[in-house]
Amino acid sequence: MSEFARLEEKLAKLRHRERAPGEVRKLRGADADALVQALVTEIDETILPRRLTLTAGPVALHLAVANRRLQALLAPTPDIKGAGELADKALPDAEDPAVPALLQVVTRAFSDGHPVEVSAMRLRAQFGSDVGVPANLLARAWNVKPTAPTPKNPGDVLGGYLQEISTDAIAWLRIEGEEVTDQNGPEDRVAALGEQAAVFLDGYFAKFDVLFPTDAKACGTVVSPKDGNSDALLFVEFGEVSAFIAVKPALVADLAGRWQRLVAD
Questions:
Q1: For 91-137, what is each residue's pLDDT tens digit?
Q2: Domains in the chain, ordered, with CATH?
């Protein structure tokens, strides 16, 4: 949406405050089975198209992941038997022979006892959003026992919330990653909301660590006018999806409370 170019440019610069693109993290697991389990969890938490890179000593695996699906092994790793045959081939479903073959590749990568590191980079989608094996089916195919209940899907939670408050909100913008993906409300108010969001997010991201000193899975921030006549603004965020909402001051506390109840563990 070109009318939100300024906001999207701001998001591109500021979005990754918790985890910079390519930031290396340790994949937690005491043995190969536990590391595979942690990998499935990583896939289950990835919504936007990402290249997940797993590094174990001299070995590196690159996986295409999107929409909580493992889509493909992106690059062959000559040091691991079987990787070359699977590279750049989309996984059609959980029953495909490539799924257990890829598990063998991953297990071999983890078998030498090296600490495993994982990083994620934005990936231009080369497969459709419905391509690949969903994390829950992957866990079953790989015989991985779940370590925790399946987390709430941030996109579904936000979508339901925006639908629920549609009669109370004056206007809203839905943001996924670095793009405005949906909008609602009068055209002039939506345009103004885009400008307000760009200004607000500049300060919000800069002060995020002060506002939320502990890890925050889901956040809600209210900006309320002093005079009570201007619109109040509500910014809600869950994972990589968020929304900027204009609402009458008298209703903003109720809308913020409804969001908190939705995302509460």
A1: 999 999 999 999 999 988 888 777 888 888 888 767 887 899 999 99
A2: 2-16+152-263 (3.30.450.30), 31-141 (no CATH)
Backbone angle region of 228, left / alpha / beta, with phi > 0 → left and psi within -120 to 50 → alpha: left
Which residue in 120, 93, 233 sits closest to 173, CA to CA? 233
pLDDT interval class at 17 (50, 70, 90): very low
CB-hemisphere CA count at 13 Å for 197?
35
Token match 């989309």: residue? 90
The closest of 103, 112, 58 to 83, measured between CA atoms, is 103
The residue with tokens 């939320």 is: 212
